[in-house]
């Protein structure tokens, strides 16, 4: 595993960016496999809890 660097577009998706940044800061995605990476477009990864719930209120 290595380091993943992403660019977040806060002005376009502020809630999504906030959730992703905070979950990342907390280590939520540590060890998660990002199985689809399209350069300059998007990444997709699995849900480490397998619950589908990864939203911070």
TrEMBL record:
EC number: 5.2.1.8
One Pfam family in the UniProt entry: Pro_isomerase
Top EC group: isomerase
Gene Ontology molecular function terms on file: peptidyl-prolyl cis-trans isomerase activity
PROSITE patterns (UniProt xref): CSA_PPIASE_1, CSA_PPIASE_2
UniProt superkingdom: Eukaryota
Domain PPIase cyclophilin-type as annotated: residue spans: 1-52
A Gene Ontology term for the protein's cellular component: catalytic step 2 spliceosome
Catalysed reaction, written as an equation: [protein]-peptidylproline (omega=180) = [protein]-peptidylproline (omega=0)
A GO biological-process term: protein folding
Key words, A-Z: Isomerase, Rotamase
Keyword Isomerase: yes
Functional summary from the UniProt entry: PPIases accelerate the folding of proteins. It catalyzes the cis-trans isomerization of proline imidic peptide bonds in oligopeptides.
UniProt similarity note: Belongs to the cyclophilin-type PPIase family.
Protein name according to UniProt: Peptidyl-prolyl cis-trans isomerase
Naturally occurring in which organism (per UniProt): Gouania willdenowi (Blunt-snouted clingfish)
């Amino acid at each position: 595993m290595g380091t993943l660097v992403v660019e977040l577009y806060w002005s376009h998706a502020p809630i999504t960016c906030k959730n992703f940044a905070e979950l990342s800061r907390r280590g939520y995605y540590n060890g998660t496999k990002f199985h689809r990476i399209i350069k300059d477009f998007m990444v997709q990864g699995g849900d480490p809890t397998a619950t589908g719930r990864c939203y911070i209120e």
